[in-house]
Design a protein that fits this description.
The chain is of the alpha+beta class. It has 2 domains: 107 residues, Roll (SH3 type barrels), CATH 2.30.30; 299 residues, Fumarylacetoacetate hydrolase, domain 2 (Alpha-Beta Complex). 15% of the residues lie in helices and 26% in strands. Strands 6, 7, 8, 13, 14, 16, 17 and 22 form an 8-stranded mixed β-sheet that branches. A 5-stranded antiparallel β-sheet has the order 4-3-2-1-5, with no helix packed on it. The longest helix is centred in the N-terminal third of the chain and has 15 residues. It starts with 33 loop residues before the first strand and ends in a 6-residue tail after the last strand. The mean pLDDT is 96.
Amino acid sequence: MNELLNATHDPQLRSWVASANEAGSDFPVQNLPFGTYSQGPQGARKIGVAIGSQVLDVRAAGLVDTADMNELMAQSPQVLSALRAALSQGLVEGSAQQAAWERFLSPQDSVTLHLPCRIGDYTDFYTGIHHATTVGKLFRPDAPLLPNYKWVPIGYHGRASSIGVSGQVFHRPLGQTRGPNEEVPVLRPSHRLDYELELGVLVGQGNALGEPIGMGQAEAHAFGMVLLNDWSARDVQAWEYQPLGPFLSKNFASTISPWIVTMEALAPFRVPFVRPDADPQPLPYLDSEGNRRQGGVDVALEVWIETQAMREAGQGPARLSQSNFRDAYWTVAQLLSHHSVNGCNLQPGDLLGSGTLSGPRPEQAGSLLELSMGGKNALTLANGETRTFLQDGDAIILRASCAREGFRRIGFGECRGQVLPARRLQ
């Protein structure tokens, strides 16, 4: 029995917002993800909830008394659950709120979507064991996984200031690289630019400095999840990463989707967290009965590419790969508990990246580094173009959804970013 389920997950619920009832909608009334939007780029920021093709002004509807998403995210799980219940009751067919709330709806394509909250800190983990193994084999064929990988959630602190919302465009980064036949490094545009398919966890309630979050309470500190593309300059990374890890190879841009799918919305799609018998089991501070029973989340993931040639020919994007978050080696609760076990104080809006989420099969890779085997094997796209790494004009689109028999499918919307040519040094 899944004790996380409640009336808001009822698959029979339908909304008076007609577009929410369409079979392919990412945002049925069972989802109700949160975001931040405005009427025009310079308009006042508002907290919105996506419902079908529309967005509801939550404050105007009388459900919250703040326009600050971080303030909302800091509320207790009980308050947030009550808010979700009120939204569900107000948006279902036959609701007495329909006449009043219709005035507070705007088409999503008529508003400006912003980063869903202020992201103060960003930590990127390395939970995708299939990605870690494949990449490790490129550099360490005899020992692809380092000895600590199966014991500790590996992570590094990234740059929050360059995180942008879906639709982000950025210039190809410059960086110091050294080719295999070069004696000295050279500053130049990256020629091995890559994407990374990830999910991001956004922290809700924080913890006080010096007070770790135990596994039993960890998910009470997770507000929800977004798609995350951690763009990576692989040639810059190869030269700089020893001994302190990624730096300029990662901090030039990261892109997230605009809608935060709450942990409560994901309740129907929880799955057991199981380690292979031959692998070490988590240390006690990373283990709990609840995490073993339903710590995983079944989220289907996709990567699509849209090249400049595709746009000019009026062609749609081409799918590069599919994978699933249930293959991650660590859970949301484990990331939160480990991040805080030393006393680190997490705060509302902090972003924890999953790391690249690849599947066990080669075609399920979550990056071009893997799909092209380090640039050795070019991919042929549907229109005949080939890629080993990204070219100028390429756009990468991430998509995610959750589906399970007996429940309504929900989605994350789109996470899109596009590469522009490098800028010259002034």
